[in-house]
Amino acid sequence: MKTLCNYDFSGKKVFVRVDFNVPLDEGFKITDDTRMRAALPTLKKILVSGGTVIIGSHLGRPKGTTDKYSLKHLVKPLTDMLGCPVKFADDCMGKNTEATVSNLSKGSVLLLENLRFYAEEEGKPRDLPENASEEEKKAAKKALKEKQKEFAKKLASYADIYVNDAFGTAHRAHASTALMAEFFDADKKMFGYLMENEVKAVKRVLDDIARPFTAIMGGSKVSSKIEIIENLLDKVDNLIITGGMTYTFTKAEGGKIGNSIVENDKLTLALALKKKAKEKGVNLILAVDAKIADSFSNDAKTGFCDVDKIPDGWEGLDVGPKTEKLYADVIKESKTILWNGPTGVFEFENFTHGSRAVADAIAEATKKGAFSLVGGGDSVACINKFKMAELVSYVSTGGGALLEAIEGKVLPGIAAIEK
Ligand code: AMP
User: Fold this and answer.
1) Considering only CA atoms, which residue is closest to atom 6 of ligand 1?
2) 235 noted as active-site residue
3) 17 tagged catalytic
4) Start-end of H helices in 119-167
């Protein structure tokens, strides 16, 4: 793996693609700076070894230049985090920026304006009339692709070395996340520390697996997790399918699920997945009881019942105590654990118990030496809510990117460096 660990950056200009896509409030104050903090080890390493840093990132989904998504709001917080001055280029392109880049003094830091202010970054045409024909759309895309190459080449021209530390966008083949890597020789492009850690964590659950391997897949819909579940069926020993997905399986088997969330068009798929798991010798574990509610609300009346005997007018919003034990017994004996998605509607305090039981069991297994990876959206929110991030082996920063990696897809941001 190409990493910056032993690289001597002295006298080199380094373009670092980070994921500074942080949430801002109305006063442009950062409400969660996790993503910025995650990139600090890489930025500091380059600076300490004598490099000059040019930082590129996106923020939000702008359709053009807009104050709302300007990276200028991040200059002061970044200065404080790095403990050194941060210059700002109010455009990532143009003669002024070129001049600023070429006049950067050794060891300085330059933050470029939001790369997505240019449509070239994502390569998605903007301002197409709503009634544009398929041909017009195709032509616009083709024209933009050409401009995108030039855009990537220009960004690459700013630096001697390219470092990608933006795992959150590694599943996108954008100009700064993948295309610009082509303009650097193999020994002049590498992963940052965050990216390195994410790639290593994914390897531990896809390739270098210590057994037994248990994956806990939760969340609301089978349809959004199907590719991951299918890929995992070739890897895991135990597969816990939980959360809202439970009820599609229960209904498929003829159970009574009351008003619980269900995908009626995925009943056959659920049965097929069960069959596939059996064929592959995977221990598929589904809930046996549920914590039910008489409405979708934290303050609903609640009770417990068998998962396939939910009365009319009630819905399952979390797993019950028998299921918690079933899950925990398997998790505690595991040597590799992947957790994606809660066991219930964890946003409601009264329905967090099952997810907490999963988190506790993972923490216990980790303490005994298991490798545990938590990632892909809501399970990260869950583990942070429980203040248990320190008790698992790795919490991924990449939502969609992590999920695509676990689906077995090649991420363009990773492939571009490894080429
Ligand atoms: P996902 O984004 O697919 O990982 O799904 C996470 C969402 O699933 C969370 O917002 C949970 O509230 C929701 N969820 C989990 N269990 C249930 C359930 N039993 N009924 C409805 N929603 C659920």
Assistant:
1) 219
2) no
3) no
4) 119-122, 134-157
Q: Which residue has the tokens 């088997």?
A: 253
Cα gap 106→393, rounded to integer Å:
37
- Domains of the chain listed by start with CATH number: 4-191 (3.40.50.1260), 200-406 (3.40.50.1260)
Catalytic, out of 72, 141, 221, 325: 221
Record the pTM: 0.89
Centre of ligand 1 from the C-alpha of residue 298, in Å:
14
Q: What token pair was written down for 415?
A: 């492939």
Quote the ligand 1 centre to 345 CA distance (angstroms): 5
| Average pLDDT per block of 10 residues along the chain, 419 residues long | 86 97 94 93 96 97 95 98 97 98 97 98 90 91 95 98 96 97 96 95 92 95 90 95 97 98 96 97 98 98 98 98 98 97 96 98 98 89 93 92 90 93
- Ligand 1 site residues (CB inside 6 A) read 219-221, 224, 243-244, 261, 316-317, 341-342, 344-345, 347, 377-378
